[in-house]
User: Which sequence fits this backbone?
């Protein structure tokens, strides 16, 4: 529903600012989907009358005009085709700043022009640029165009939920706002039109389908003149997104927007009678006949069937009920007498026909959502009033009204105690009453609650003596079954149960009033939880078996590792009452236990072992006890289990690196430094520690045979390397705490992969080669990957051959062959200059 | 004569095509007959040597030949492609009984598997995980938990003491105390973790063991809520047919205190060796948090109350997987662990 705040303000005093209005609508449950602000024009754009206009000789359609804009007459030049003397139009004085130009004094064809006569487009009001604005002749001159066009204005696009058809009209929205803001709803006063008793114009109304059309009303208005609508009416429709057509159609649309109830007008004289015995124009609400033809207002011919409901005259359909009118009976400029339809149709009938014939109109949209038949007469009267004002005419006869089964009243009971149960706080009975009254509910009595809705006055329970304004609210909570009975306004078709009323109350009182009952604190470290599980799963999936060892250690085993005794003494926490000396301290490393586990399993004929434990280490730092989570792992033997297809090789340096680097990659940790660890138990050449932001994350190394020997493992006889991996899990958790995965748009242009192979001295680290290649063109070279390494025959001693994929990607454009060539050339040149490589 | 020449070219092309075996041959033939330096192109160059009047008819003939050659080559190419596709789709000699390539994963330790299962069950009930240190002081391990000064659990024979005056927590209730110190109610937490008691290792004891303890402090919490929670846990862990009961017991920390039993998972309550013919297995210690504990934490025991429970992870693992001796869990034998690589967590 498109709503002009100017129009809306006719029914309610709106909040001062647009922000407040939007806020109120939002919290009332009406979502504002879009806001268009139409700003005011400068006050120097005013109405003016063209006193005289003359063609400028030698030009095609330029005219020189003398205009009266309330001050001294001025001379302006105008090129519009509709420029003529006597016309009242919009005049922008010199100095006016219009949306697309500023008006200056100019000379056109040697004629001085002191301002400009404007079209609607030039003023930014609409797209109409067919000529200068034509205002009604009675418009006074010299008044601001803002006043004529009701500017400034804000156009709001509101999303109305399907359960609230009553909000598909300005009054419905104003009513909700009034209830929410505790303001008065200003309804237009509506007169009754009894009609002339002696009118000779009559109508035959037959309602054949009361299921599909619960009520049909019609009025005859004679002596109207169909013409263009007055400016206010056209403006109102345009701002709400409808196109003005003529005064009669525009009024039916205006009243539909105002009340939510669609109306339709037929040309009385074009409605055919049933036969000669009943010579009056007829309206028959009936099912269409099979394959009955109907030509709609849109000019299209529709083939109807018996499921369609039509408004027919004596011979043929003159409207597809509630959806679209017919061409034959449409209002034309010659129409003098109309029949005004104000009717109610069942939602399913409208929905099915609308779907079947693929026609959706403002009218069908509303009927599909279930309107109430109770207000048809009121809406009809509202339209009559406007028609008589705008198009003249007189009302013939009383209202024709076919309403076989009038809607029953609906009484519902609401318990304040139930509101508290459901919403979570107490709402005073007097407030309940106020809110519901402002929504149009009528308070009936206070009595014991009854679940079933009541449709008759006499079935209401006995009333308690109670004044809502003065009584103590506590009584409703002492007696939770005490309820307030209300008569539900029939336009609120969505309200059928107590829960519906409670929803209304909660909505109007504001969801922000709902208390937060339990402040559950976020105690759990979800991030740590997820990282730990990810690590566990990673190792499991990589073929590791998880060990769980006690937290105790034999201090002697730490000496076996080669740890410094004095250092150990400083950090070791000893147990006062150990069960044995080999369990007499808290573990500061898991390595000795894992080596014991390794030995145990080797002794049980398991040769290929990947073992890991994630657990706490404990030590003291002065008076402080420290506990950190570590992961230590051992790898030995063949990398894969035996398989006839797969060549199984011993675990080597790069398998071990792969485990570490794979995990760091899975955790999105970027390593910025690696260096040796110098643990006394690791072979000096084959160990490495990984750092991120100066934090040690992980390390690995090959176990010395000497150390293994002290744990009774004979590496030399075993002929297997033993690799030790170590991870600081706490550090991994902290380094990843703020990580987030973010989608990046996919490249629009293809990546290019180029391979280069070269000989390079063995002393140059691969990491340095990659780093320096990336630096050659940081924006184009996305990745460098090794795909082959070779030493031996054909390669000089101390050298090896390296083969690389260089992946280039330009996110802005397609990479040309030439550009790729340039980049590769500079890469090679750089490599040659830096390390004297030999290309292969 | 020219007609003969054209005819010869067509004949030769037919022979060439017959010998054509693959895509590459097709390319060569196309170049030979239709390419820049092809036979057909050389015919075009003869065109300008001809007298004016013969040119149109000759040109027409050459064009016809060209079209004919194109058609023939295209047809052969299509035929070749079809042969390749058919060969690809035809039966291959494979032994489908040879095993496929698959690298089995390792396994988490059954204690980790059970801990993760327990965490997930309680998280689904709205509990959060809270953790705390293994090394504790006497206040958090005993005093705050209402343990009398002379209670036997404080003995050296029961509790490990450290050389710096601290001790190793004997239950993870210490985390409950620390949580109540830091957060006001409502509290719904579980605290999984390592605990230490000076018990000699035997089939059902280990000096280091693992627990999941739970704590709820909120308004309107009753023993019925505790019963519901434990029953939900038992069914989620052991299956919907498991029955549970609670019976009175004593813990300093709770009042009333209870122990929870489930129907024997081995004999379904009929009585067997595992349940010592009782039909019931002890599963958890539990109870309503003692008011004096709440009071010590500064929680108004007139507004709030709560329950607590403690469940041994080893015990659950042994019952669930039918492991007869707790010490098996600490041997870290990969032949034992391998049996759990197919577990669902
Ligand atoms: Zn049993």
Assistant:
């Amino acid at each position: 529903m498109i709503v002009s705040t100017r129009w809306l303000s006719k029914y309610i005093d709106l909040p001062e600012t647009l922000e407040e209005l939007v806020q109120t609508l939002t919290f009332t449950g009406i979502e504002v989907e879009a806001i268009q602000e139409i700003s005011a024009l400068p006050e120097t754009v005013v109405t003016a009358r063209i006193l005289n206009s003359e063609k400028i000789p030698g030009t095609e359609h330029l005219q020189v005009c003398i205009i009266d804009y309330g001050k001294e007459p001025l001379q302006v030049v105008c090129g519009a085709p509709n420029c003529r003397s006597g016309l009242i139009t919009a005049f922008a004085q010199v100095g006016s700043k219009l949306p697309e130009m500023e008006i200056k004094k100019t000379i056109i064809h040697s004629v001085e022009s002191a301002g400009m006569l404007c079209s609607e487009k030039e003023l930014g009001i609409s797209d109409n640029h067919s000529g200068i604005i034509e205002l009604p002749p009675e418009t006074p001159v010299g008044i601001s165009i803002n006043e004529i066009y009701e500017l400034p204005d804000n156009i709001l696009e509101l999303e109305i939920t399907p359960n609230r058809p009553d909000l598909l009209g300005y009054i419905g929205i104003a009513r909700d706002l009034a209830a929410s803001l505790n303001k008065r709803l200003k309804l237009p006063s509506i007169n009754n039109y009894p009609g002339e008793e002696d009118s000779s114009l009559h109508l035959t109304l037959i309602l054949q389908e009361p299921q599909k059309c619960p009520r049909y009303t019609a009025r005859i208005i004679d002596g109207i003149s169909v013409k263009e609508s007055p400016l206010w009416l056209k403006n109102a429709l345009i701002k709400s997104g409808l196109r003005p057509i003529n005064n009669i159609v525009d009024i039916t649309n205006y009243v539909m927007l105002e009340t939510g109830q669609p109306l339709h007008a037929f040309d009385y004289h074009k409605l055919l009678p049933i036969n000669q015995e009943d010579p009056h124009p007829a309206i028959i609400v009936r099912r269409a006949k099979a394959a009955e033809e109907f030509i709609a207002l849109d000019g299209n011919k529709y083939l109807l069937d018996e499921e369609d409901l039509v408004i027919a005259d004596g011979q043929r359909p003159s409207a597809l009920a509630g959806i679209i009118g017919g061409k034959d009976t449409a209002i034309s400029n010659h129409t003098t007498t109309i029949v005004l339809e104000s009717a109610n149709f069942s939602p399913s009938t409208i929905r099915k026909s609308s779907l079947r014939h693929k026609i959706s109109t403002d009218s069908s949209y509303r009927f599909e959502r279930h309107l109430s038949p109770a207000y048809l007469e009121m809406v009809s009267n509202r339209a009559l009033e406007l028609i008589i004002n705008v198009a003249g005419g007189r009302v013939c006869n009383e209202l024709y009204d076919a309403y076989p089964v009038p809607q029953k009243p609906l009484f519902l009971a609401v318990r304040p105690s139930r509101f508290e149960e459901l919403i979570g706080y107490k709402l005073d009975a007097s407030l309940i009453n106020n809110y519901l009254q402002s929504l149009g509910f009528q308070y009936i009595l206070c009595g014991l609650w009854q679940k079933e809705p009541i449709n008759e006055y006499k079935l209401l329970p006995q009333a308690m003596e109670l004044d809502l304004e003065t009584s103590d609210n506590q009584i409703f909570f002492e007696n939770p079954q005490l309820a307030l009975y209300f008569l539900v306004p029939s336009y609120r078709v969505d309200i059928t149960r107590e829960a519906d009323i409670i929803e209304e109350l909660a909505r109007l009182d504001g969801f922000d009033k709902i208390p937060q009952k339990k402040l559950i604190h976020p105690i759990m470290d979800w991030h740590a939880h997820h990282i730990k599980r990810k690590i566990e799963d990673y190792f499991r999936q990589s073929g590791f078996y998880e060990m769980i060892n006690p937290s105790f250690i034999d201090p002697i085993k730490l000496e076996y590792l080669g740890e410094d005794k004095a250092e150990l003494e400083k950090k070791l926490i000893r147990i006062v009452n150990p069960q044995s000396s080999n369990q007499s301290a808290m573990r500061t490393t898991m390595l000795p236990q894992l080596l014991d586990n390794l030995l145990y399993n080797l002794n049980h004929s398991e040769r290929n072992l990947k073992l890991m434990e994630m657990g706490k280490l404990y030590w003291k730092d002065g008076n402080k006890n420290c506990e950190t989570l570590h992961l230590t792992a051992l790898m030995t033997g063949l990398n894969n289990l035996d398989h006839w297809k797969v060549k199984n090789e011993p675990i080597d340096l790069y398998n071990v690196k792969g485990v570490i680097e794979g995990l760091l990659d899975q955790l999105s940790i970027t390593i910025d430094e690696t260096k040796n660890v110098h643990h006394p138990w690791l072979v000096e050449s084959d160990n490495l520690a990984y750092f991120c932001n100066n934090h040690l994350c992980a390390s690995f190394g090959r176990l010395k045979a000497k150390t293994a020997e002290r744990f009774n493992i004979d590496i030399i006889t075993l002929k297997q390397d033993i690799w030790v991996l170590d991870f600081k899990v706490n550090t991994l958790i902290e380094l990843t705490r703020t990580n987030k995965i973010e989608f990046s748009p996919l490249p629009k242009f293809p990546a290019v992969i180029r391979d280069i192979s070269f000989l390079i001295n063995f002393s140059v680290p691969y990491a340095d080669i990659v780093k320096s290649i990336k630096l050659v063109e940081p924006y184009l070279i996305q990745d460098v990957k090794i795909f082959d390494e070779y030493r031996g025959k054909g390669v000089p001693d101390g050298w090896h051959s390296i083969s690389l994929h260089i992946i280039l990607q330009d996110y802005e454009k397609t990479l040309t062959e030439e550009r790729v060539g340039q980049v590769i050339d500079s890469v090679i040149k750089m490599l040659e200059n830096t390390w004297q490589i030999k290309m292969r | 004569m020219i007609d003969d020449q054209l005819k010869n070219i067509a004949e030769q092309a037919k022979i060439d095509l017959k010998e054509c075996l693959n895509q590459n041959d097709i390319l060569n033939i196309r170049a030979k007959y239709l390419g820049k330096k092809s036979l057909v192109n050389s015919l075009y160059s003869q065109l300008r040597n001809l007298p004016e009047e013969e040119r149109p008819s000759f040109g027409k003939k050459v064009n016809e030949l060209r079209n004919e050659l194109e058609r023939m080559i295209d047809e052969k190419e299509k035929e070749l492609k079809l042969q390749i596709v058919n060969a690809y789709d035809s039966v291959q000699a494979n032994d489908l009984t040879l095993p496929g390539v698959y690298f089995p994963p390792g396994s988490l330790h059954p204690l980790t598997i059970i801990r993760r299962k327990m965490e997930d069950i309680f998280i689904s009930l709205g509990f959060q995980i809270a953790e705390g240190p293994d090394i504790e002081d006497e206040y958090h391990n005993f005093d705050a938990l209402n343990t009398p000064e002379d209670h036997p659990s404080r003995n050296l024979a029961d509790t490990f003491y450290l050389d710096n005056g601290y001790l190793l927590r004997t239950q993870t209730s210490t985390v409950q105390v620390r949580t109540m110190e830091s957060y006001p109610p409502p509290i719904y937490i579980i605290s999984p973790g390592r605990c230490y008691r000076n018990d000699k290792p035997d089939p059902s004891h280990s000096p280091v063991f693992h627990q999941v303890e739970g704590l709820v402090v909120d308004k309107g919490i009753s023993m019925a809520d505790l019963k519901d929670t434990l029953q939900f846990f038992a069914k989620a862990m052991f299956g919907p047919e498991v029955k549970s009961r609670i019976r009175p017991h004593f813990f300093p920390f709770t009042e009333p205190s209870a122990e929870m039993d489930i129907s024997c998972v081995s004999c379904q309550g009929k009585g067997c060796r595992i349940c010592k013919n009782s039909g019931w297995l002890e599963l958890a210690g539990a109870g309503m948090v003692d008011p004096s504990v709440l009071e010590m934490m500064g929680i108004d025991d007139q507004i709030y109350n709560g329950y607590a429970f403690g469940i041994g992870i080893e015990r659950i693992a042994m019952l669930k997987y039918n492991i007869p001796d707790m010490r098996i869990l600490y041997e870290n034998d990969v032949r034992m662990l391998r049996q759990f690589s197919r577990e669902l967590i």
